[in-house]
Amino acid sequence: MLRYKTGMKRPFVICIFALMTLVVFAQQASVKEANVLYAQKNYTAAVQQYEMVLQSQGSSAELYYNLGNAYYRSGDIAKAILNYNRALLLKPNYDDAEFNLEIAQKKVVDNVDVTSVFFLKQWVNNLGDIMSSNGWAVFSVILFMLALTAFLVFIFGRYRSLRKTTFNVAIASFVIALISVGYAVKQSNKVVNSTDGIIMVGSVTAKDSPALNGKDMFVMHAGTKVTIKNSVSGWTEVELPDGNAGFIPATSIEKI
User: Fold this and answer.
1) Among 86, 178, 94, which residue's Cα sits nearest to residue 186?
2) What percent of the chain has pLDDT over 70?
3) Which ranges of the chain does DSSP label H, i.e. alpha helix?
4) Cα separation of 101 and 145, whole Å?
């Protein structure tokens, strides 16, 4: 029988752990450096550092929020609004990002009237924004476990009153868990398949067709939030909250 030297695995595991630790420390140092630059009011350098961290470390609501603050302080309102929205996309209940977004939006030239939404649909959407997709997923797992526990008590319980109560708890927990799964999927799709965008140029004229000689429809300014409907040969079809739609050059908008 062949023998393996299991002791050789230990140095390898230690090296991997040490490497991962160094990476984490390097990432934390990069974020700390960006925070220091921001505190020193060197906002342009802070923007560059936060952008570099996003490229190397990956996205997070906190990084987008800090980047939005740096862009706001540097005077780039459109970029600030873009990153505040990205932070809220990952963390819908991010109060600080929502507060700063409202401040930044006051500097946007366009004041678009929002089409009213049926109150029940609005309530359902607001409920979904209480947590992120991960939050809803964890909540659904907890409820499924509660439903299973209650069902087992119902099956093996000796007292009739207890069995009746646990049966109701099991049914209610299971139904709410299914709803939570639905919200988890919905929130995940919002992140992966986001259809919202921010106008990034000073001003842009929407056309009735994807062509320079198309009829002028309306003008939008930097920081305006729109819904992306379609993309055609370097043009993007967008829709304002008031229902007005048109085509703009794809380079004038950035997807959230």
Assistant:
1) 178
2) 86
3) 9-39, 43-57, 61-74, 77-90, 95-105, 119-128, 133-156, 160-192
4) 38
Give the Cα separation of 63 and 60 in Å (integer).
Answer: 5
Measured between alpha carbons, how far is 226 from 196 in angstroms, rounded to an integer? 6
Task: Give residue-wise pLDDT tens across range 18-54.
Answer: 444 544 444 566 889 999 999 999 999 999 999 999 9
Q: Write down how long the chain is.
A: 256
d(CA 226, CA 247): 12
What are the DSSP calls for 130-155, one per residue?
TS-HHHHHHHHHHHHHHHHHHHHHHH
β partners of residue 205: 219
The span from the CA of 62 to the CA of 54, in Å, is 11
What does the alpha-carbon distance between residue 159 and residue 80 come to, in Å, rounded to a whole number?
Answer: 60
Q: What's the rounded Cα separation, in Å, for the pair 16 and 143? A: 37
Distance from C-alpha of 38 to C-alpha of 74, rounded to nearest angstrom: 10
Cα distance between residue 240 and residue 225, in whole Å: 7
Render pLDDT for 53-97 as a digit per residue (tens, 0 to 9).
998 888 899 999 999 999 999 999 999 999 999 999 999 889 999
The secondary structure element, H or E, covering residue 75 is: none
DSSP code for 2: -
Q: Answer whether 70's CB lies under 8 Å from 50's CB.
A: yes
